[in-house]
């Protein structure tokens, strides 16, 4: 098969190598800053990469905050419309975090667009990779161990469920907040403390580290003001995040947004998960 690997970070550069090792032909576009494997064909234009390809793979997230192709390693910015403008009707595109804008481009071109980030087999690996990257970020950002620290994880989604037991295994005292009684019951069954995300005010002063996984404003100025001096805030949520960073700076807190951790800390594992999800999508398309 012919794959067009377009944009993205180190994950997609590693994906290109994995696809080549599997015997596929690979074209790459908007990855000029990445060390590409021997055998990958670098393309100067989107049409050169996409035309005739069996599958085009776009990054996670597919679009940047400015609405352009998410391509931090590209020599210059590119619009996603360049890719879909070269697409043939029925051509398969796989992308992460597909929104209305990207869906509209695909619909106009007649391309078949699939969101690999919506697949459980990808989400599971991505959550573990993000959790490990978060722990690495915390260890890098503090001079103390995680052992004995009081940590609040906001949100009990896939990432929260992957992160909490790993923090607990390192000796942290972990509290996980969620919105439903059922989720809080499962949190306690897992051996962690539980809190209601809607009722965190008045509780924040008890934590040394706060990790947000919810893509909505939960760490407001009022809640951040409760945190003790020297507290560390790590926001792992997708755009726009869930932290009032301006307020955090005003209060002298150490607050950091940490998107794309799998690509930074474990690009090989992330690329393997992406390859598996893309192969599964293509298998389902053929059925």
Describe this structure in words.
The protein is of the alpha/beta class. The protein folds into two domains: 2-118, 3-Layer(aba) Sandwich (Rossmann fold), CATH 3.40.50.720; 123-263, Rossmann fold, CATH 3.40.50. It is built from eleven helices and twelve strands. The strands form two sheets. It has a six-stranded parallel beta sheet with strand order 3-2-1-4-5-6, with helices on both faces. Strands 9-8-7-10-11-12 form a six-stranded parallel beta sheet. α6 links the parallel β7 and β8 (173-178). The longest helix is centred in the middle third of the chain and has 22 residues, at 120-141.
SSE layout and pairing:
Elements: E1 2-6, H1 10-21, E2 25-29, E3 41-43, H2 46-50, E4 55-57, H3 80-85, E5 92-95, H4 100-109, E6 112-115, H5 120-141, E7 150-154, H6 158-169, E8 173-178, H7 181-189, E9 193-196, E10 209-212, H8 221-224, E11 232-235, H9 245-250, E12 254-257, H10 261-265, H11 267-286
Parallel strand pairs: 1-2, 1-4, 2-3, 4-5, 5-6, 7-8, 7-10, 8-9, 10-11, 11-12
Helix pairs in contact: 1-11, 5-6, 5-11
């Amino acid at each position: 098969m012919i794959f067009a690997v377009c944009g993205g970070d180190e994950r997609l550069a590693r994906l290109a190598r994995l696809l080549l090792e599997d015997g596929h032909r690979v074209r790459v576009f908007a990855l000029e800053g990445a060390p590409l494997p021997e055998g990958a064909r670098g393309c100067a234009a989107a049409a050169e990469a996409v035309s005739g390809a069996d599958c085009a793979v776009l990054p996670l997230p597919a679009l940047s905050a400015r609405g352009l192709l998410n391509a931090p390693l590209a020599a210059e910015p590119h619009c996603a419309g360049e890719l879909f403008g070269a697409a043939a009707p029925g051509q398969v595109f796989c992308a992460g975090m597909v929104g209305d804008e990207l869906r509209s481009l695909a619909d106009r071109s007649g391309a078949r667009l699939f969101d690999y980030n919506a697949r459980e087999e990808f989400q599971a690996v991505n959550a573990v990779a993000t959790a490990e990257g978060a722990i690495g970020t915390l260890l890098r950002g503090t001079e103390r161990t995680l052992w004995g620290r009081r940590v609040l994880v906001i949100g009990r989604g896939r990432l929260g469920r992957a992160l909490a037991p790993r923090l607990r295994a390192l000796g942290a005292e972990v509290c996980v907040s969620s919105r439903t009684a059922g989720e809080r019951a499962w949190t306690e069954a897992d051996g962690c403390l539980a809190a209601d995300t809607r009722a965190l005010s008045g509780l924040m002063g008890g934590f040394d580290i706060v990790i947000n996984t919810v893509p909505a404003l939960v760490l407001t100025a009022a809640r951040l003001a409760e945190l003790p001096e020297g507290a560390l805030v790590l926001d792992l949520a997708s755009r726009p995040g869930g932290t009032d960073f301006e307020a955090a700076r005003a209060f002298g807190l150490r607050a950091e947004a940490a998107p794309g951790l799998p690509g930074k800390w474990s690009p090989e594992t992330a690329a393997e998960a992406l390859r598996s999800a893309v192969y599964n999508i293509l298998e389902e398309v053929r059925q």
